[in-house]
Input
Amino acid sequence: MHKPWVYLFSEVEKAEQTVNGDWEAIRGLFGGKGANLAEMVRIGLPVPPGFTVTTEACNAYLEMGREFPEGMWEQELAALKEVEALTGKKFGDPENPLLISCRSGAKFSMPGMMDTVLNIGLNDDTVVGLTRLTGDERFVYDAYRRLIQMFGSVVMGIDDDVFEDIIEAQTIKSGVNGDADLTASDWKAVTEEFKITFRKGAMRDFPTDPYDQLRMATEAVFKSWNGKRAIDYRNAANIPHDLGTAVNIVAMVFGNMGPDSATGVAMTRNGTTGEPEIEGDYLINAQGEDVVAGIRLTEEIQYMQSQLPDAYAELVAIAKKLETHYRDMQDIEFTIEKDKLWMLQTRDGKRTAQAAVRIAVDMAEEDLITKKEAVLRVTPEQVDFFLHPQFDADAIELARQDGSLLATGLNVSPGAACGMVAMDADLAEAWSKNDGKPVIMVRPETKPDDVHGMLASQGILTSRGGRTSHAALVARQFGKPAVVGVSELDIDMIKRQIRVGSEVIREGDWLSIDGNTGEVFTGSLKTNIPDIQDLYLIKLLSWADEFRRLGVWANADYPADATRAREYGAQGIGLCRSEHMFFEANRLPLFQKMIMTDRPYERREALAGLLPFQREDFAGLFRAMDGLPVIIRLIDPPLHEFLPDLVELMGELSDLKLRIKHAGTLVEIDELLEKIKIKEAIRTRALNLKEQNPMLGLRGVRLGIPIPELTTMQVRAIFEAACQVAAEGIQVLPEVMIPLTSHINELKVQRKVLEEEAKRVMAEQKAEIEYKFGTMIEIPRAALTADQIATSAEFVSFGTNDLTQTTFGISRDDAESGFLIEYMEEGILAENPFATIDRDGVGELMRIAVARGRQTQPDLECGICGEHGGEPKSIELCHKLGLNYVSCSPFRVPIARLAAAHAALKE
Amino acid sequence: MHKPWVYLFSEVEKAEQTVNGDWEAIRGLFGGKGANLAEMVRIGLPVPPGFTVTTEACNAYLEMGREFPEGMWEQELAALKEVEALTGKKFGDPENPLLISCRSGAKFSMPGMMDTVLNIGLNDDTVVGLTRLTGDERFVYDAYRRLIQMFGSVVMGIDDDVFEDIIEAQTIKSGVNGDADLTASDWKAVTEEFKITFRKGAMRDFPTDPYDQLRMATEAVFKSWNGKRAIDYRNAANIPHDLGTAVNIVAMVFGNMGPDSATGVAMTRNGTTGEPEIEGDYLINAQGEDVVAGIRLTEEIQYMQSQLPDAYAELVAIAKKLETHYRDMQDIEFTIEKDKLWMLQTRDGKRTAQAAVRIAVDMAEEDLITKKEAVLRVTPEQVDFFLHPQFDADAIELARQDGSLLATGLNVSPGAACGMVAMDADLAEAWSKNDGKPVIMVRPETKPDDVHGMLASQGILTSRGGRTSHAALVARQFGKPAVVGVSELDIDMIKRQIRVGSEVIREGDWLSIDGNTGEVFTGSLKTNIPDIQDLYLIKLLSWADEFRRLGVWANADYPADATRAREYGAQGIGLCRSEHMFFEANRLPLFQKMIMTDRPYERREALAGLLPFQREDFAGLFRAMDGLPVIIRLIDPPLHEFLPDLVELMGELSDLKLRIKHAGTLVEIDELLEKIKIKEAIRTRALNLKEQNPMLGLRGVRLGIPIPELTTMQVRAIFEAACQVAAEGIQVLPEVMIPLTSHINELKVQRKVLEEEAKRVMAEQKAEIEYKFGTMIEIPRAALTADQIATSAEFVSFGTNDLTQTTFGISRDDAESGFLIEYMEEGILAENPFATIDRDGVGELMRIAVARGRQTQPDLECGICGEHGGEPKSIELCHKLGLNYVSCSPFRVPIARLAAAHAALKE
Output
């Protein structure tokens, strides 16, 4: 026999037996809403009687060509009988009619995407009995017309506007301001009009048989799983299409039955700040939709204590019980019908990143969850929140209430952005670059041609596309807040305006978008930079540190970066790019002089000028990192990067030459000629250094070998700085790293130069500094021959940016705004390998390198200093590969600490 | 007890016991010359009595600070006693003096690099006895003065010119033309002068005690191992420095004892052509050096049959015996002293590549060696000989005799070249490019700045540098014949001339260089293109085919190439670069049109125009390869390669714009404007397609995915051609290959496009063609994920050019004339990885790919189509990795066949 298609909420244990108590399976079978209702019943909370038609029934229905599977309807009727017994009412009974709601409920929440029919059971007969029972005819006819309207639009597909037009006509006819002022007889008249409209639109009468109503509503919910909106949503949210929806049939309770009735929603803790007190809104004598619709001004939940003290006390106790049961903050819906509290829904509450951190910490300290669980409750992406501008919590709350919330779409790239609407990329760029205006670029969708506009914008908003759309990928890539797939936006490229319902936004108007929530607001909302020094975050991260095994270091080129990194918890500097210092204004001319000559003597002279600068920079790093290791990478980029751009040079040359024409004196001419001579020498050198594929060219260790003076100067700067700082009583732990190694012999040659110079400096300074010598692994060959590399290197650090380029044969500069995006859109690549380490290719090379390197040197220090070092999935991979540490931007250190803990805890 | 320091030639078995009969060890101990003399004694050939002081004695002497090791001198004296017994003469006996020679003899021949002293044992007393015995006072004093001269220069380091000056003075004094006319008393006078000169130069008297002579000569030979010349030679020839030299002490025999005496050299077969008859020269009544010096005209060896019939018969028999014993052609030296034949030397004879092939084949057919040995006797490099121009054998023979042979250096890059001497790179380029003159670039050594001149030259000649010098590496790289390290060349960059001894070559004079032999000739020698269809070569290669397991395919883009490849033995086409056809004049505009549009319809239209051309080209290939597989690779290069160069375009645009100024009519202006419009569109597109690192950019499969029309057209052309040719009764075996794959999903997408189009064409043509679908593996990620790749690919082919670039992170375009050369000069890389597969990096990726690919698909067809496919060491690696075939340029197919056989036979 097939397992039941229908379960009473009280039968959840029966269902559990069929799936061995697997809560995920129960959620799959009952849907989220049904499972939580049943669970509330199980723990003795007041839930209106009801039952769930399972997702399996839905799938069977859809598979069988839209026929109920065998036995389902009979089971539904039997369950209904139980509900009648529990409520003491009877379905379709004119005397004491049972009304029920019929709601969808999938495993994963798809808000507003599927159908609901309320007040099922009303007809011309039962309204009479209900009126008598409630003594409130207006309420009853309002409920009746709602049933016909919902049934008409949801079940029969009649355009809802037709019904709304009738209501509007009635308000005119009755000379009142709006729905709220319509009387019982007005609603009676509307109901009659609705029945006629229904007949016209559905080609049949409104079904007066409550059982017909129930059957058709059940079917409608089933079908809504494959509605276009639902499919689009699932595509965008990556929800599988074969889950199906459950149908929850619940006895109606009414919060609009007088001053002892109410309805409300609440979070068991503050979802914005995480403060540990119940937070929510309620309305006396109202229905659920009134609270949500915002027509009446709601009361803060705490006020209920004075209005409905018993119900309030019960609600607070239930909230506590639910938190204890679910071990998480809950988002609940309730109705009070004549002083009796009914729970209509509970689910894990959504929360801001800030709240997530505080709630996790508080709950752990309340012993509700363990520290481990607390750490796992907060995602690294939530920590990321602390690093982007965010909308001010009050401002956003106000905006949500004051009608500024224009629409909601997919939250594909986090952060808050405000700007003026620009409807094409060129305009966005022009406004931003020329006029300095902040811009939100709005497009139906974006294409590769739009990238320059996206880069110039504060944020990106589109009406089409999902999480892997071009807009989403590019925005995440470049850290631009973005909301996509906002289907309510009707973008008119001719009129250069956007319609949302009746509202019109013109090009140049201000919009604010929240990439964390997907919300789009009119106007410019206040933004804040969050405080990374949030005490709860600090506590949570300190717990994370207890669990992680992976070290977290930072990439920092300057002492200030190092200091920040250390504040954020970095345990070392994994990468100091020693050449960044050469680009500064007072150093570049010296470095260019070094490039311009082939004579070792002149080179040494130019480099000698740079030495004091480098030494000071390194000394600053060592001071900041007292007692922690500092890895300094010797010069990496190709030399032509230090010379002026060729095109610019040609322009300057032409200019100088033209100026000779107008030169007044011989002295002037001579001066110009001299300048031309210098520029031409630079041009010649730049041409000379030009390469077909500079990424694969003369850089890294390939510079240090032909120009040993360069290595020598850098090594001298490192060791002079180290000796100097050590003399101040500071513990200095320098590690010198060679970039772009592909062959062990390159390392050997450089190691010799380094050791000789280090020894010389230490002898001069009469000091002994312990140091390590190592190399980047950023070339496949280095990874493959790590056993050889480890004979000379005491540590290795994966440069996964370059390693990804060579392993994939992809130039990041060219591809990331080009074909890579197409690859991701078409699903050829699931992820951008420059954002998340490609596990099978780059990850495999890393695995090989670690294994072979440690074959030679079992305790070989292995780290990563590519950008991936701050990305959670990549950090998990690094953990699995047994690296010693990840090194990332100082700002990402907190994220990495948490991600490393997650990796360890998930094992 | 230490093994003996000294062995009589007859004691070789005793030595063999100490090294377990290992012939290589014997050669190491005795040196090549000593080992062969001993071996000749063992097989009963007439060798003058003598003994060898071992290389170990030499090494011990050098290590112990130039003292004979214990017991060595006593052993030498004991051996000398045995020689006295065997000859019946006594060392230092005035009545019947024994004379001996003292020669160096290292394991590997180092011609002319170490020392020799002849006629040891002569002094004022023994000359008297010898004169009486020989009755030839002139001979005896000539011998005596030679001893003093050699001893003076070799042992005591006196400048040889001082001795030569004395001889010249004597000829003047005696009023004769030259040495040959000096009389006994003249030589007597010279001898007396020599003694005085010796005393002055050496600060001591000439040692009259024969034992002193022997001891000092032995020491001199030992020391000469560490002479500068010898060290330089070993560095250049990659001979280890710790081998040491043996000293061979042999009783003197004299070919200048009258008309029944003679001396000569011979090869047991013709070293130039390989013809199986003895070849050589001799002189009646002469000493060895007379033959070599070329002062007297030598006779062809065959003429000896009439002059000295008995000795000739014996010599021919010995030659035969030696060949049978050594199982190889021998290069021998002999002396006939009063009708008695003495063998002075035998060694494996040097031979031309042509001779090597013929001798190997002949010997196998004579059952002297096996077919396997014959195949192993010829090196792939010798087969390479058949592919380069070579000097005409007669011309070179003549040149060697007529004094055109200027000098000999290291043969670092094969082939023959004639040209006018240009002494710097700019001049070389100017003469070659502007004046069309053939040029030999001559430099003391070359530097990276010289590469343009080297490329413009026919050949390269330097006076310095060894096998890994810049000149050698670049020359081999670009297939330019080169001779380097010719120390005799005295290059005067001021006078723009080269001195060799007394000869002066001026800039602009003709030189001919032989990169096979290292010879440098004055003038322009005749060159020939060798006949690859040499019958002996064909036979040898057919034997090679019996032994090899690796298939040999060819890379061919056109039917003519395919036909040649098949003639040379190719078993398939491993790579047809399908885009090469697009570059032809009548096709390029169509292809450019395809590039210029983004509209699929216009693209298809442009591509439709190309279809017939591609179809015809493919049909031709299929016809040529009837019954053999043909792998066609879909388009690979980035699209900008098909557009005109940007700089050129800008020039053309400027030109067009200027022309408007002078346009006569409106029509003319309109025409110009139209042209400008078109050019500007091309310019925009070219700019658009420009990439930072095109090697890692939009090419290969990355083109086929966004432009599926391109794939479709190429697939259609392949299958239309296949159907058409199959209908002609020809067996067509097409394999379609996707380039630059890095991810399995790329393959899947392309496979779908391909299969659909192939099916469509076959349905249209009502034909069924069996085909394979596969991919290049030229990106590390593809190699690492070959297990996934093999789920879609039915074959893979390693593109080791690209794979080397990405595995090493080296751009070939930039590095190969840049830092790679420096890396090889400095020994950081032993070999150019673009010439020979880098075993540890690229080879390791190949190993991984083969293993993982065959994990998924045990019979996965694996091949290689990079340039390495024709390079012997790389072929050996491919064999070891278990590839199915190598594919190379048609010209290299014969080399690959032999190399593949070697790989199999060496296992």
Summary: The radius of gyration of chain B is 34 Å. The mean pLDDT of chain B is 91.
